[in-house]
Amino acid sequence: MDEHKETLRVGAAVRRRRRRLELTLAVVAGRSGLSVPFLSQVENERARPSMRSLERVADALGTTAVELLAAADPACTVDVVRADDDVSLAGGTPETHVRDLVRGHHQLHAFEYVGDHDEGREFQHRNDELMYVIGGAVEVEAEGRAYRLGPGDSLYLTGGVRHRWRATAADARVLVVAVGDHIEAVDGERR
């Protein structure tokens, strides 16, 4: 039985954000490098963007892909994500994909990355993040240092730290847990 019958409406979230910022599709297309027809199809739920395309749209809209996905999905007070649920984000393959483990607009975001992802992309989140290697191996670059992580290793990043990561083994599985960007989560010393 599907305990989460709502379908992800990322296009509606993109449209709401674009309109709130009073931007045209042409402006978002120019900023993201994607075409106006493709963005129109996304907004009208006729096309589902890959995670990379969604990140480009999010950058153009001054937000993150995680926030767009959270805004696209209604929050549930209790939600079970089963191993065989179709919650992988578009654009992946069986060897490489991102699986959303917390659906909806919550204070906590969690994703499972299998295989590699866009290793050239640098991330900087407003709030704290934890990476936990389930299997394989990854290398994370943060604050000018490289950290090699294997199964059972974790890496904590304080909000604001620029970082990038890549899989160094074909069977890499990484759990990423982060405080939502819409949450003001700073400690007393940083206020």
Structure overview:
Residues 14-68 form the HTH cro/C1-type domain. One of its GO terms (cellular component) is cytosol. The chain contains 5 helices and 8 strands; from the N terminus they run αααααββββββββ. It is α+β, with helices and mostly antiparallel strands. α2 (25-32) packs across α4. The longest helix is centred in the N-terminal third of the chain and has 11 residues, at 10-20. The chain is globular. The termini are far apart. 27% of the residues are buried.
How many whole angstroms does the radius of gyration measure? 17 Å
CATH architecture of the largest domain: Sandwich
**Number of DSSP strands?**
8
Q: Low-confidence parts lasting 5 or more residues at pLDDT below 50?
A: 1-7
Shape: globular
Could you state the order of secondary-structure elements as H and E?
A: HHHHHEEEEEEEE
Mean pLDDT: 81
Largest β sheet strand count, sense and barrel closure: 5 strands, antiparallel
Corresponding CATH superfamily of the largest domain? Jelly Rolls
Per CATH, the class of the largest domain reads Mainly Beta
